[in-house]
Amino acid sequence: MTGDRIQTAYLVTGTTRGIGKALAAEVAARGQRLFTLSRAPEGPVAGGYNYTCDLRYSDQIDQAMARVLDALGRVGCREVVLICNAGVLGPIGFIDTLPADRMADHMQVNLLAPMQLMGCFIDGSRSWQGARRIILITSGAGRHPYAGWSLYCAAKAGMDMVMRCVALEQQTRPDGVSVCAVAPGVVATDMQAEIRGADNADFPNRDRFVQFQASGQLSSPESVAATLLDLDAGGQLVAGGLYDLRDVVREGDAAVIAPRATTGSRSGDG
Question: How do 254-256 and 79-84 pair as beta strands?
Fold first, then answer.
């Protein structure tokens, strides 16, 4: 990596809606460099550039990451952060009702794609001089089982374990990449709308999530994005840490958070 490295560059996946869209807007608003991977048309976006990529296809991931890493290597930022945000909830339903092809697509997007993205990022940035970090957007569902969410829970649990393994791998290297995972809690996104629209027979806990909205317990994507970037900029996200944004406290203007235990969960994790 060349240049004076005077700022942070963020590479964010899944930026067409929800938390990813809010993250992209917040990065741009803070004047940091933004690179995005999404299914939106290729081209400039506010604060940066979008690379078209459908995470269902591994060849597209390889091609897009080669291009974005080349661009990042020429920018010259002092640090680069990959945020693996993209994910899907469905299909929702009991395991005996789920088609095999949709199972495969789910695991590809929610688990295999983040693994591939991490591998590309770590390998492709090996010669850079600046700090490198990876933040995986996970879920309390990785620690708390739900009937009807076998795919989603399994993918998030797998992501959490992959994070812990990769963090250990990187700690063996003097120039290793810092890797952690952050659960945002229950957030007012299209995914929550999908949950509320599910059939009770497919998702017996649906009424709990309906109540989250009715009682005003949903965080906004914008507040989640701002808090996540505050934590990252403040050095609060330690390699190997599994975090939940509902544990954030404010000390003056600073956001402070402690890692979660790797077992157990809080009631109502989503």
Answer: unpaired
Mean pLDDT of 54-60: 98
Which residue, chain included where needed, has tokens 């979660």? 260
- Cβ atoms < 10 Å from Cβ of 117: 24
For tokens 């591998």, name the residue: 119
Q: Across all residues in the chain, what is the average pLDDT?
A: 93
Domains of the chain, by residue range, sit at 8-184+219-256
Confidence of residue 270 (pLDDT cuts 50, 70, 90): low
Q: Are 14 and 132 within 8 A, CB to CB?
A: no
Average pLDDT over residues 144-159: 98
Give 8-184+219-256's CATH code, choosing from 3.40.50.720, 3.30.930.10, 3.40.50.300, 3.30.360.10. Answer: 3.40.50.720
Strand partners, 44: 49
As to burial, measured by CB atoms within 10 angstroms (0-12 exposed, 13-18 middle, 19+ buried), residue 215 is: exposed
Find the mean pLDDT for residues 60-85: 95
The torsion angles phi and psi of 56, rounded to 5 degrees, stand at: -75, -15
Answer whether residue 261 shows pLDDT above 90: no
pTM: 0.94
Question: Between the CA of residue 242 and those of 81, 126, 189, 217, 247, what are the distances in Å?
Answer: 17, 24, 22, 22, 11
Helices 221-233 and 18-29, axial angle in degrees (round to 10): 50
